[in-house]
What we know:
mainly alpha, 74 residues, flat
Amino acid sequence: MLWVMPLPANIVLRNFGLAIFLAAVRHQCGSxxxxxxPPETGLSMLFIGMAVLLTTVIIVLLVGHYxxxxxxxx
Length: 74
């Protein structure tokens, strides 16, 4: 079975899902979001996020290239 979703519909659904997820997270944590001081923790959170992202990307690239023989540009 082959099913293709148009790109605009895909983007709308992804953005809607992200908005619902963020609303649910905000609802669950309540006032804890307001108690954190973003200027103090913002830069460290940015670097932590970058480290997690780069680690994941590198692992996926290496596994895909060496184990699955997928070229880097695919």
